[in-house]
Each structure stands twice: as structure tokens, then as C-alpha cells.
Design brief:
alpha/beta, 7-stranded parallel sheet
Length: 282
């Protein structure tokens, strides 16, 4: 069986590093895109011919396109794209600073979009490939202090749902992977907004709830699961990683359906179709 070529963003730490290591152990080749390669040094020494590190700032569109071009030229193809790089800023919506908002959107949303736009010409030409978009359970539901992070992940979910329908004509599969909690650098590098005193009680309640209900795993568990997903002949559009977050998501969706049905009469009253007015469809 021919070795696959992976392109992984945010590959030097956290889930990205775990994905990189697991793909290499599996015998595949990896193009690791990251701003730094500190944690990749040992892997580079061990997997000299399998690992290509390209220093990349995913918020810089031209840098991304150049990196993907160099990556494709090096290995001659790209089979699996793992859009993983991301950051997290926690804070009440009212507290969020403009710079934190822009950094989050530029990294989490636009960075992934630039990668997608850069790889699609190569995948279209091949008429095959997989794009794995790492979002989060926060891409399905949101909560206090995670509004900005969830907004960026919600945006990716919508983008990739459309992409999956566009890409299928070329034999390209798009899979949205929604992880729960993993002990990664996302926690260590997490930033916090400047707190407003009036939210003190809300924060205390959230901290208590988190400490009582947190279930986090080693990143290697997610990496092992990703290999299983990659090998599926007909992968789903979305797949959640983790029992606890799966249960939360199911409960959340059931509640949403219940609410939709409760106010169904109002929703249906908002539609009274009429012929196209003059001036439309020109």
C-alpha cells in the first residue's frame, strides 16, 4: 500500500503534534506547518525522509499558499489535510478586546480558510483527498466565556458543510472533527479577557461547574481515533471525539428539536408564498 502524505497545521504542539507523530508511526509522510518546530526536532531526526517542516504563519494568506506549493512539490501529492491550528480566548462577550477578536478570527477561521483554498487546486487535480477540519464541541454549542472561540468554530462548521458539497464532485471528502477535552497547549496558551467585576459570581459558578465535570484525555487518544476515521470508506461529515461531549451534544440537539416543535406554529405562520415581485431575478 502506498504511503499517504499528510499536511497538518499547528503540528508542533498539542493535537497537531499527536496527529503528526501517529501518522509518522503509521508509515506515512507528513508536511508539518507551524510557526515553530521546537517540539518537532526529535521527530525530524527519527523520521528524516518522512517529515517535512515548513515554517508557516497561517494568518498570512500568501505564506500559506507558498507553503502548500512547496509541500506538494516535495512529495508530489497531498492526500490528507488536517486543519488543526487554533487559539482560544476566554471571556464574556462584553469584555472581549478588538485585538483578541481579530487574532481569534484570523487564526481559527481565516487561517483554516487559506489552507482550504491553497490545497483545493491540488486535490481537485488528483480527484481525491480528505480534508479534516478540527473544530470543537464548541462548534456545536456555546457557553458563557467561550463565545468568541465558539463563534470561530461555528463559522468553520458552516464553511466546511458547504465545502463538503462542493468538493464531493472531485472525489474529495470533508470531515469535521469535533473534539472534547484533551490536555494540550490550548489550555496552557489560553488567554483571558480583562474581567468586569459584575461578572464575578458568574465566573465563580463556571469554575465550580468546570472543576466538577471536567473529563480530559491525552492527545494520543484523539490521534489514534483520527487514524480510524481516515480509514473509513464512507466517513461522516461530522464526528465527535469523546463520550462526555457526545452525550452533551445529543442532549443539546434534543432540547433544540423540542424547542423548535414547541414554537412550530409561530415559525409556520411566517410563510405566505407569493409570485416573484417585479424587479427580482434580473
Amino acid at each position: 500500500m502506498e504511503n499517504k502524505v499528510w499536511l497538518i497545521t499547528g503540528a508542533s504542539k498539542g493535537l497537531g503534534y499527536a496527529f503528526t507523530q501517529k501518522a509518522l508511526e503509521h508509515g506515512d509522510n507528513v508536511i508539518a506547518l507551524s510557526r515553530t518546530n521546537t517540539q518537532l526536532a526529535d521527530l525530524a531526526e527519527k523520521y528524516t525522509n518522512q517529515l517535512l517542516y515548513i515554517k508557516t504563519d497561517i494568518t498570512n494568506k500568501q505564506n500559506v499558499f507558498d507553503s502548500v506549493k512547496n509541500a506538494n512539490e516535495h512529495f508530489g501529492k497531498i492526500d490528507i489535510v488536517v486543519n488543526n491550528a487554533g487559539i482560544m480566548v476566554m471571556g464574556m462577550v462584553e469584555e472581549l478586546s478588538e485585538i483578541d477578536i481579530m487574532n481569534t478570527i484570523n487564526t481559527n477561521f481565516l487561517g483554516s480558510l487559506w489552507i482550504i483554498q491553497a490545497v483545493m487546486p491540488y486535490l481537485r487535480k488528483q480527484r481525491n483527498g480528505k480534508i479534516i477540519q478540527i473544530t470543537s464541541i464548541g462548534g456545536l454549542l456555546s457557553g458563557a466565556t467561550s463565545g468568541l472561540y465558539s463563534a470561530s468554530k461555528f463559522a468553520l462548521e458552516g464553511l466546511c458543510e458547504a465545502l463538503s458539497q462542493e468538493a464531493e464532485y472531485f472525489g474529495i471528502k470533508v470531515i469535521i472533527v469535533e473534539p472534547g477535552g484533551y490536555w494540550t497547549n490550548l489550555y496552557l496558551d489560553m488567554k483571558y479577557s480583562e474581567p468586569i467585576e459584575d461578572y464575578k459570581k458568574t465566573r465563580e459558578d463556571l469554575e465550580k461547574k468546570f472543576s466538577e465535570g471536567s473529563v480530559d484525555s491525552a492527545p494520543e487518544v484523539a490521534a489514534e481515533t483520527l487514524l480510524k476515521i481516515i480509514e473509513l470508506e464512507n466517513p461522516p461529515l461530522r464526528i465527535i471525539l469523546g463520550s462526555k461531549v457526545l452525550d452533551i451534544a445529543i442532549e443539546n440537539y434534543e432540547q433544540k428539536i423540542k424547542e423548535l416543535k414547541k414554537y412550530e406554529h409561530i415559525s409556520r405562520s411566517a410563510e405566505k408564498g407569493i409570485p416573484m415581485p417585479d424587479g427580482y431575478g434580473q
